[in-house]
Threonyl-tRNA synthetase editing domain-containing protein
Amino acid sequence: MKILMFNTEEFWYRVYRKAIESAEVENGEEVVKDALVIFVNVEQEDEGRLETVVRKAADNIAWLARKTGRTAIVLHSFAHLSESKADVEFSRDLFVRLRDRLAAKGYTVTATPFGCLNEFRIHVLGDSLAKVWKSV
């Protein structure tokens, strides 16, 4: 898994269209203020280590949340951080498990609709911890 984490003042997105037929569009547009926005790429290599990847990703996100004082998190599936891509159903399951694990840690978690292409606008802060990349 690759994650690209942004400390943001504001993140806005709007669903553009479904990218996979099974995508469920729950909301079409949303604005989240003062949040970490996490771009998530689930890789094929993750398929044999689901729980480990979820735990490590959640720990990395929680570390940055503590460092930046953020309690709101936005998860966004972004399959462009690696050439490796996991199976769609596996990726969806991992994405849901990561969301649930972060919520269980006390974070307010928003997830953009999985399997959709989105327009988005993001205001990223300028400090060194405002942009963090991790390979899990």
